[in-house]
Amino acid sequence: MTTIDWDSAADSFDEEPDHGLLDPVVRHAWARRLESWLPRERSEVLDLGCGTGSLALLVAGQGHRVTAVDRSPRMVEQARAKLTGTGTEVLVGDAAAPPVGRQRFDVILARHVVWLLPDPAAVLRHWAGLLRPGGRLVLIEGVWNGVGLSAGQLTSLLAPFTERIHHERLSGDRDLWGKDVDDERYALVARAEPPRRHTEVVDVHLILRRGSHVLLARRAGTGYADGLLHAPSGHLEDGEDVREGMIREAAEEIGIALEPQELRVALVMHHRGPGGGPRTGWFFEAEYDPARLPYNREPDKCSELAWFPLDALPDDMVAYCRAGLDGYRAGERFLVHWHEDGDTVAYEPRGPRRAVPLPAGGVRTGRVHHIELWVPDLVAAEAGWGWLLGELGHVPYQRWAHGRSWRRGDSYVVVEQSPDLVPGAHERCRPGLNHLAFHVADREALDALVARAPEHGWRLLFPDRHPHAGGEGHVAAYLEDAAGYEVELVAG
Q: Phi then psi for 256, rounded to 5 degrees?
């Protein structure tokens, strides 16, 4: 609680440009702000900590009926003189417990008062009780030389009894203060409406994979993020679960009928757009099927469908979608992406990064972190391993002068042409690595990979015993690249 002697300060109080409002430029700036914060219709306004009545005079001049309160008799004396003829009632009293009896108001106005209160939470609760239904608190506060109340702190104090809070930054408007200021000054306009149980939109996003490429749609004619690329997506309708919603959106937007078992959860993101409300986004991964070609079923909402490499995504994307795909590529499972109100909807390559990864539960000890293969020819290895790992659902992950890596979940595979590589070819039959083995969905997918493997530098081993080279009950293909590295692809 401050120990300022307000009676002693009263005679010089109006010398500050924003106190006395003697400068017409400053007075007009405050009048314009008040006009935007107060109701348009004639209202009952309670000005607490009114000082010499400068703001009360502006409010009365805009047609409102004002009751003004200040604890300093000297301030009240000056306010009464200033407000003569306006119909304003000026009272001596404590702003924390104004002497207004059972009277109720449409607006409570307080400038630079809340930060002085010993128990602001209790006082704000009391003030909210003095408002009529639908009334509003107009609170002008700031932080000066390390003292005061930040907008975040005051918003938290208001949260228990209202959820409609408008924040307006005032520091940048020199006309309000009669000078440039570099501290935090702001206004909060809070409607007196009890908080409702929190609800938010749930949206779904499809990461349709074609090897190392992903399908994106360019928005058009929607009124939100038009011209930017985004994954096929939408929000849930009443009664849907997230899989049902994703299947419906895929059919509506790109004309493919997905089965529930084709969808894999890639990422869950809690996100908020600039100036918007929070949403929960589920990103699902599915594999491209040449027998079900995606096409633009909503030309009124989409101007283009195109495939893009996951490790070279375009910049002209919706920011949170780009963050989701970047997180997916990095193996993250849970993200928070919270825009600030001044951010752009579009991804900005040099802008702030709002994505915050959240660690998944479970014991990590003992899981495979990565497998590293030293290769004699990085260019050839990148072509062959990049194709195969991409077809198996791995995402391009790291790239440096001597190596590349591809990630799937928590683990990744590295190929590196290290400067420390010693002469000699890889021989899988010598002590050391024999082969890597990967799951493949089914026999049909296995046959498709085997058919295309030679185009990418792989040859089929044991062709006379394929696909049972590992035994009659084992359906698999054994491939070898030009450097002698072997991969086993196991169907089912």
A: -115, 140
Closest to 111 (Cα-Cα) out of 196, 30, 207, 199: 30
Do residues 216 and 296 touch, judged by C-beta distance below 8 A? no
Residue 152, C-beta contacts closer than 8 angstroms, at least 6 positions apart = none
What is the secondary structure of 170-224 as a DSSP string? -TT-HHHHTS---SEEEEEEEE--PPPPP--EEEEEEEEEETTEEEEEEE-SSSS
Bridge-based pairing of strands 264-272 and 89-92 is unpaired
**Is the pTM here over 0.90, yes or no?**
no
Compute the half-sphere exposure of residue 433: CA atoms within 13 Å on the CB side of its CA. 15
Please tell me the distance from the alpha carbon of residue 139 to that of residue 158, in angstroms, as a whole number.
Answer: 11
What is the Cα–Cα distance from 32 to 492, expressed in whole angstroms?
70
Tokens representing residue 396 in the block: 């391009």
Burial 228-263 (b: 16+ CB within 10 A, else e): bbbbbbbebeeebebbebbbbbbeebbebebeeebb
Rg (alpha carbons) of the chain, rounded to whole number: 33
Q: How far apart are CA 414 and CA 398, in angstroms?
A: 9
- Using CA atoms, how far residue 230 sits from 31, 208, 244, 265, 307, in Å, is 44, 12, 20, 18, 11
Helix axes 54-61, 73-82, angle to 10 degrees: 30
Cα gap 238→245, rounded to integer Å? 10
Give dist(CA 186, CA 313) in Å, integer. Answer: 39
Contacts of residue 465, defined as CB under 8 A and 6 or more positions apart, other chains included, come to none
Percent of residues in the chain assigned helix, strand, coil, to nearest 5? 25, 30, 40
CA angle, corner 108, sides to 104 and 109, nearest 5?
155
Task: Work out the burial of residue 369: count CB atoms within 10 Å of its CB; fewer than 13 is exposed, 13-18 middle, 19 or more buried.
Answer: exposed
- Strand, helix or coil for residue 299: coil
Cβ neighbors of 13 (< 8 A, separation 6 or more) are: 19, 20, 51, 52, 75, 78
Alpha-carbon distance of 330 to 399, in angstroms, equals 12
User: Cα angle vertex 38, ends 36, 44, to 5°?
Assistant: 165
List, run by run, the mean pLDDT of 10-residue segments along the chain (492 residues): 74 91 95 94 96 96 96 95 95 95 96 94 94 93 91 90 85 92 93 75 96 94 92 95 97 97 96 91 95 95 95 95 94 93 92 91 85 96 95 90 91 96 94 95 92 97 95 95 96 88
Contact 229, 305 (CB under 8 A): no
Structure tokens at 74: 């000297």
Task: Please spell the DSSP secondary structure of 29-73, one letter per residue.
Answer: HHHHHHHHHS-SS--EEEEES-TTSHHHHHHHHTT-EEEEEES-H
